[in-house]
UniProtKB/TrEMBL annotation:
Protein name: MFS transporter
Compositional bias of kind Basic and acidic residues: 417-427
Domain Major facilitator superfamily (MFS) profile as annotated: residue spans: 1-407
Subcellular location: Cell membrane
Keyword Nucleotide-binding carried by entry: no
GO molecular function: transmembrane transporter activity
InterPro entries: MFS, MFS_dom, MFS_trans_sf
Major location category of this protein: membrane
Superkingdom classification of source: Bacteria
């Protein structure tokens, strides 16, 4: 007698058919491309107007400093405010300040303070927009597709970097105003896309959100991140690798220039690094499934520890580019493992603070790395600077491999996977006019905390 099969459950729609995720993905791609276009064009514009490299560095530094200073407070605000409204407001502010800059450049009345003010506003908006978008991801993507979505987001960052830097130089050569005008258009397009994204109202908006005070809530986020041992260790690994990679990358580029490598080949090296990141992001879901979480993190350490000293044998720009491609390839897999775990481990009410804190730590390490690389190259020379960075990476890799904490970073489905439970959704309809599907809160029973390890993309990040 045939056994009756239980009815099949509802099938999860493919990620490429997920309307809200695709709208968020395209919106952030626009902002990434625009950000990189302006970031490259700012020093060129300052040099064209003033001829001062110091002032050119000032404008770029103001943008990074604004993101760092605002990072942690912005995270606390995002855990109070409606994230979709924050993203829309950021796009309005960025578009407005860019159009004002475009107007002054077009009329040939632009001054350094115009560019400094614009860079500061763009940095502040990035400190709000980026963690708001990242914290919204679990609301639009089912848990089973979260790792794939995270890896595609890393591909998006590399695509934005390649598009922005590639187009910026061409546009600036045609007319100085064009990169900034293109950035303003990108933010306008992003604003339109965000209008159609459906996100729920967080339950924290229903009263009592401001009772504890702003700084107490900020301190709560700091305690949360620090008290989760596994997240703390992976975040420290990310900081160390970010710092060491920035040294290797800068020294390789400067050494190639000193050795007389043509500028076109140096540009090819940077492009090959971006391509390595994109290919790695596309392969990350499958590699993450093969390796599991712990090995996904360790492989990027060992890849850099091996490839960095081998790069000393390269005799041309394209060969150096291949080594950079290899270093970039495994970073998205590690980021996928760590970021997915962290998103699932962190309650929704704390995700903004988490992203702000990790963004600050990653930004500091990314800023100090180039400084250390320049000093190391001046004191030791290019070869010994790379060797020192490779030794530092190998030591960190050994520590991570032997770490008892990372041994608990088990493969997917290995028993420590964070469990999701309903409870923080607002109801069927949020303030954004859409259904609150996928609105859940995540936590690790008996544990706290999280930290998003960020890849060294043009980016800013590496696990």
């Amino acid at each position: 007698m045939a056994t009756r099969q239980p009815p099949a459950g509802p099938r999860t729609r493919p990620l490429w058919r997920n309307r809200d995720y695709n709208l968020l993905w395209m919106s952030r791609t626009c902002t990434e491309a625009g950000f990189n276009a302006s970031l490259m064009a700012f020093p060129l514009l300052v040099l064209a107007v003033t001829g001062s490299p110091a002032q050119a560095g000032l404008v770029t530094g103001v943008n990074a400093a604004a993101q760092l200073v605002a990072g942690v407070p912005a995270g606390t605000l995002l855990d109070r405010w409606n994230r979709r409204a924050v993203m829309l407001g950021c796009e309005v502010a960025r578009g407005a300040v860019l159009m004002m800059l475009v107007w002054t450049v077009w009329r040939d009345t632009v001054e350094v303070w115009h560019m400094v003010a614009t860079a500061a506003v763009l940095g502040l908006c990035a400190a709000l927009y980026d963690p708001a978008e990242e914290a919204s991801l679990p609301h639009v993507v089912p848990e089973g597709q979260l790792a794939t979505a995270v890896s595609m987001n890393h591909a998006r960052s590399n695509i934005g970097q390649l598009l922005g830097t590639g187009v910026s130089g061409v546009l600036f050569g045609i007319k100085h105003v064009l990169p900034f005008a293109a950035n303003a258009v990108a933010h306008a397009f992003s604003f339109v896309l965000l209008l159609f994204v459906r996100l729920p109202r967080p339950a924290r908006d229903r009263g009592g959100a401001f009772e504890r005070g702003f700084w107490r809530e900020t301190a709560e986020g700091l305690r949360w991140v620090w008290s989760h041992r596994l997240i703390r260790v992976t975040a420290l690994c990310a900081v160390a690798l970010n710092f060491l990679f920035q040294i290797v990358y800068l020294v390789l580029i400067m050494a190639a220039q000193q050795d007389g490598v043509p500028s076109g080949q140096i540009g090819m090296m940077a492009a090959m690094f971006g391509v390595g990141g994109i290919l790695g992001a596309l392969a990350a879901p499958r590699l993450h499934g093969w390796f599991g979480r712990r090995l996904s993190v360790l492989v990027v350490f060992w890849a850099m520890a091996v490839l960095a000293p081998l790069s000393l044998t390269a005799s041309s720009g394209p060969v150096l580019g291949l080594f950079l491609t290899g270093m970039a390839f495994f970073a998205p897999t590690a980021n996928t493992a760590v970021s997915t775990y962290q998103l699932l481990a962190t309650p929704d009410r704390l995700r903004g603070r988490l992203s702000g804190i990790i963004g600050l730590v990653s930004g500091v390490s990314a800023a100090l790395g180039p400084m250390a690389g320049g000093l190391a190259m001046e004191w030791m020379g290019a070869r010994w600077a790379i060797v020192a960075a490779a030794v530092g990476t190998a030591v960190t890799a050994v520590i991570a491999t032997l770490s008892p904490t990372l041994r608990g970073f088990s493969p997917p489905g290995g028993g420590t996977e964070p469990k999701r439970e309903d409870g923080h959704a607002d109801g069927p309809d949020g303030p954004d006019g859409g259904p609150g599907e996928g609105t859940v809160s995540e936590h690790v029973p008996g544990a706290t905390g999280d930290g998003v390890a960020r890849a060294p993309e043009s980016s800013r990040r590496a696990p």
